[in-house]
Amino acid sequence: MFTALLVPALLLGGMGLLFGLGLGFAAIKFRVDTDPRLSLIREALPGANCGGCGYAGCEAFAEAALKGEAKPNGCPVGGEASAKRIGEILGVSVEVPERRRAFIRCVGCESKSTFRYDYFGLYDCNAVMQLAGGGSKSCAYGCLGVGSCRAACQFDAISMVDGIAVVDPEKCTACGMCVKACPKHLIRMVPYKNKIHVACHSEDNGRDVRKNCKVGCIGCRLCEKACAYDAVHVKNNYASVDYAKCTQCGACVAKCPSKCIII
C-alpha cells in the first residue's frame, strides 16, 4: 500500500523538478535585458496616459524616448519638469517647451447667440452635428455647448458656462484631447503667457455675424488698424493674433466693437 502511493508521488515530484529546471533554463536562455533607464523615464512622466504625446500612453512614450524616436520634451502634461528629468536620464540637452493652453475660439454663449430650434438629446457634439444646420445655434462656427471637450478632458480644466465651453488655464495641461474632441475645430493651443485672444472664427460676412451673435467678429479691421505692431490681421472675415508679434498692449481689445477680442 505504501509503495503504491510512493511511486506516483515520486513520479509527480520528478516531473515537477524537470519542468522547473526547464522553465528556469528557458528564463535564462530567452531573457530580454531591460534598460534600467526605462523605469526612470516612466517615473519622470505624470502617468496620465492621455495620448497627448502622440503615443498610446506613458509606457509607449517612455520606450520611444529611450529609442530616440520621441523627443524628451514630447510630454505636454509633464511639461518642463518631465522634459528636464528625461534629458538628464538620457544624457542629452533638452529644449524646454513653451507652456501652452487650450483656448475656445467662441464666446457666443446662450444669452448672446440666436438659435434655430431647441435641442433635446445626447450631450455629444458629434451627435448634434448630425442635425439640420449642424446644430441648433444659428452660427455654424460657434460652440455647440454640449461638452464633448469637457468629457475628453482628464484634468477638469473645461467647464460649461451659459452654454459654452470655458477653459481654466491653470488646470489645462495642453494635452490636446479637447482639440481632437471638438467637431467644430474651434479649440486651439495658444501660448500660456499671451493673454489677448480673438474669441471668434466665423467666416461669415459681418451682416450675417450680427444676426447670429452679439459678440462675433464682423471683420471690420478696426483692430488691425489699431495695432502698432502688425500683430493683428483679418483674413476670411475674422481677426487673428500673431502671438510672436503681440506686445499685449490692449489697443485691439479697446477698439473691437463686438468685444470678441478678449483678455
Description:
This protein is an alpha+beta fold and 263 residues long. The protein has two domains: 38-90, 3-methyladenine DNA Glycosylase II, Chain A, domain 3, CATH 1.10.15.40; 100-262, Alpha-Beta Plaits, CATH 3.30.70.20. Helices cover 35% and strands 11% of the residues. The chain has helices at residues 2-29, 36-44, 58-67, 79-90, 125-129, 148-152, 177-181, 206-212, 222-226, 251-255, and strands at residues 100-104, 158-161, 164-167, 187-191, 197-198, 232-235, 238-241, 261-262. It has a two-stranded antiparallel sheet. β2 (158-161) and β3 form a beta hairpin.
Fraction of residues in β-strands: 5-15%
The chain-level mean pLDDT equals 90
**Structural class assignment:** alpha+beta
Extended strand count: 8
Largest sheet: 2 strands, antiparallel
Global geometry: elongated
CATH fold descriptor of the largest domain: Alpha-Beta Plaits
Query: In DSSP terms, counting alpha (H) and pi (I) runs of 4 or more, how many helices?
Result: 10
Order of helices and strands: HHHHEHHEEHEEHHEEHE
Low-confidence stretches: none
> Order of strands across the biggest sheet?
1-4
CATH architecture annotation name of the largest domain: 2-Layer Sandwich
What's the level 1 CATH class of the largest domain? Answer: Alpha Beta
How many structurally independent domains? 2
Summarize the structure.
With 263 residues, the protein is an alpha+beta fold. It has helices at 2-29, 36-44, 58-67, 79-90, 125-129, 148-152, 177-181, 206-212, 222-226, 251-255, and strands at 100-104, 158-161, 164-167, 187-191, 197-198, 232-235, 238-241, 261-262.
